[in-house]
Every structure is written in C-alpha cells, then in structure tokens.
Amino acid sequence: MSFAAVIFDFDGVIADSEVRANLSLAESLTAAGMPTTYDECLAEYYGHNWQEAQRRIEARFGRPLPADFRETHRVRARARFMEGFDAVPGAPAFLDTLGALPRAIASSSRAEYIGWALGLFGLAHHFGDHIYSADGWDRGKPHPDIYLAAAKGLGVDPASCLAIEDSPTGARAAVAAGMTVIGFCGAGHIVDRAAHGEMLRGVGVHRVAHRFDEIMILPVA
Fold it and tell me: Which of 74, 112, 132, 141 has the fewest CB atoms within 10 Å of its CB?
C-alpha cells in the first residue's frame, strides 16, 4: 500500500492505555456516586473525547458530574498509568520503519497527556508538532473533523492518508474523513481480537491488523 502520510489514533494504537484509562474512569465514577464497571466504560465512553463522554455520563445518571470530577479523575488515572504504562507492542519498531514518511496523531485525548506519554515512551521525535487533539471540541470522533485537521496540518490530501484506529468510534471518524483505515486489534484491552476485528469491519475499515508487523507502508513516490 502506498500513502502520503500515516495518521495514528493514540490510545489503543500508540499507547497501551485503554485498560488503565477505563479502570480509573470506572473507579472515579463509582467514587462520585455513579456506579460504573470497567466493561460499561469500554462500551459507552471508549473512543470519545471528554466532552462527549461527559454528556453520555450525565445523560445516563440524570445529573451533572461534580465540578472537580475531571481533575480528581486525572490524578487517579495518572497514578494508575504510572504502575507500568507503556507503548502498544510493536508500535516503536513500526514507527522506525516509516523513515521520512509524514505522520501525525489524531486523538480524543488531551494534548498534554499525549505529549507526556510520548516522552515517557521515547517516541516524541516521531511526531514533532503534529499532535492533534479533539479535547475541548464539540464535534469529536465519530465526526471526521480531527482527522481532517491532521491531514491539513501535514499538508496532504485526506484521501492519500492511511489511518490506524482501534475503536469503532474512531474508525467511523477516519472513514468519514475519506481515509484508508486499518482497524487495529493489538492493544491490551482487546480480549477477543477476532470479534473486535469483525466489529471494526462492520463500521467500514478497509483492513484489520492484529499486530503492527501485519501492516506494510510504501510512501507515495
């Protein structure tokens, strides 16, 4: 496959973070009097930016979150992440194979967190300033806006981009942006990889990969 750029989701593609993120969110919601399980977090909030997740949480429980919830949750999540947080297996080696091919991150997470995690993994040099966050946006994934912003920032046609996504929400966004999309099933939160791959195919991904070494990229000449 030949592409002008590769655009990566972050959580579940570069960072093996979704187990820790959803465990800590379940803990934070339960502590705030909104009992929620890990599986419920994955089913309802996975792949969305905080603004959409908050809308969903408040609609489910019929009341607003505490005013300090996000900051309190961020402290809890950071502590859990420091218990052994790492990159998705194969991600660093895959990035090394891309050479000078342009690449970016298009994520629902906060830019500050993405930068911190990339520094922790030793991967920040792969992306430079090309970190695009939909945090704070009213239209996050599954809308295509964040993927279109990443392509624009790289100066490439969205149709010439390969996107790598692990969540159905994110996959819908990348497909809607007109990109070729690989549904990635290589992170720790995906227990049944075959079933997850079928779910991603159902939202329109063009290929499914269970490991990074199943993805081959050739830059446009």
Answer: 112
Cα separation, 46 vs 41, in Å, equals 7
Element (H, E) at 133: strand 131-133
Alpha helices in 82-140 (DSSP H): 91-97, 111-121
Q: Are 182 and 157 within 8 A, CB to CB?
A: no
Nearest to 15 by CA among 134, 114, 98, 146: 114
Strand partners, 164: 8, 182
Residues in CB range of 146: below 8 A, 6 or more apart: 106, 107, 108, 132, 133, 134, 137, 140, 173
Pairing status of strand 103-107 against strand 5-8: parallel
The model's pTM: 0.91
What residues act catalytically?
Answer: 9, 11
User: For residue range 35-86, what is the model confidence (pLDDT) as tens digits?
Assistant: 999 999 999 998 899 999 999 999 999 999 999 999 999 999 988 888 888 9
Residue 97 makes CB contacts below 8 A (sequence gap 6+) with 217
- CATH number at 18-81: 1.10.150.240
Q: Where do the domains of the chain lie?
A: 2-16+85-219, 18-81
CATH code assigned to 2-16+85-219: 3.40.50.1000
